[in-house]
Amino acid sequence: MDQNLGKIRNYTVLRETQLGYILSDGATEYFLHRNESKFQKLLPGDQVQAFIYSDKQGRLAATLYLPEASCEAIGFARVVDINHNLGLFLNIGISKDVLLSKDDLPEAWDLWPQAEDRLVCRLKVRGDRLLAKMATKDEILEVGPKKELNIDEVVNGYVYRITKDGINLVTEDYAIIFVYYTNLRKKYRLGEKVEVRVMRKNDNDYSGTTIEQKEKMLKSDQEIILAYLKDHDGVMAITEKSDALVIYRVFNMSKKAFKNALGSLYKERKIEIFDDKVVLL
């Protein structure tokens, strides 16, 4: 394994060739194709900063286009292709995409990122190949945000972890925001861009919510309940007395939001509420 593979280092230009340049770190020589030189005119003795990767033919090569992520630093990668037999192909800012193995992704395909979604990752070397690995919370905290987020500030984040308790988001500034499942509006996937409002600052991260303004929420929740009733012959056994987890799993809303929506529909005479069921009028 080459010690510089997947890393950004300084190199000396040794000579120009018909197709590009030869770089050296004093011990090993690397080919820099003209397409990877940013079309600069380089001279023997020039110092350049380059990234070493394995090209499409499996050969070690250099590029002056520095990646967002490397073996030594995490960064954002963009999903460019999805192969359910292999995993995801990610663009890290160089001409060669890297694979994030399906072994590092959820079993459920609907939780996989879609094209153009973004993931925070680090590179690792396997043989002479570079692979992507999703960044851990500790790795993200090491980078940390450059400035603190304000309470009630609305920011964009990308889903990097999904659990039964909720989702973890990371902003482009590497602030981590946890959103508890009762504060989610729908089911999210890894890499999805999410608008979130900051609710609280914790020891090393934040808590947030994706819930919209109360008026919009109520209207949306009413429509969800009505659609469910219409799909179930106008009757449902889920009532305001049902377990909060059951309500969330069926409707993706908190018990409080569910009760508010039921109350509004009842006042509008769209439903009738019984002890053991709700009936569409």
Describe this structure in words.
By secondary structure, the protein is an alpha+beta fold. The protein folds into four domains: 8-63, OB fold (Dihydrolipoamide Acetyltransferase, E2P) (Beta Barrel), CATH 2.40.50.140; 75-135, Nucleic acid-binding proteins (OB fold (Dihydrolipoamide Acetyltransferase, E2P), Beta Barrel), CATH 2.40.50; 148-209, Nucleic acid-binding proteins (OB fold (Dihydrolipoamide Acetyltransferase, E2P), Beta Barrel), CATH 2.40.50.140; 214-280, Winged helix-like DNA-binding domain superfamily/Winged helix DNA-binding domain (Arc Repressor Mutant, subunit A, Orthogonal Bundle). 16% of the residues lie in helices and 37% in strands. The strands form four sheets. The chain has a five-stranded mixed β-barrel with strand order 1-2-3-5-4. A five-stranded mixed β-barrel has the order 6-7-8-10-9. Strand 17 and strand 18 form a beta hairpin. Helix 2 crosses helix 4. The longest helix is centred in the C-terminal third of the chain and has 18 residues, at 214-231.
- The topology string of helices and strands comes to EEEEEEEEEEHEEEEEHEHHEE
Main β-sheet description: 5 strands, mixed, barrel
What name goes with the CATH superfamily of the largest domain?
Answer: Winged helix-like DNA-binding domain superfamily/Winged helix DNA-binding domain
CATH class of the largest domain: Mainly Alpha
Strand tally is 18
- Overall mean confidence score, pLDDT: 93
- CATH architecture name of the largest domain: Orthogonal Bundle
Terminal Cα separation, in Å?
Answer: 70 Å
What is the CA-atom radius of gyration, in angstroms?
A: 25 Å
Tell me the domain tally.
4
- CATH topology (fold) name of the largest domain: Arc Repressor Mutant, subunit A
Overall morphology? elongated
Strand content: 35-45%
This entry's quaternary arrangement is: single chain
Alpha-beta classification: alpha+beta
Number of helical segments with 4 or more residues: 4
Instruction: Tell me the strand order in the biggest sheet.
Output: 1-2-3-5-4
- Give the proportion of residues in helices: 10-25%
pLDDT < 50 stretches: none
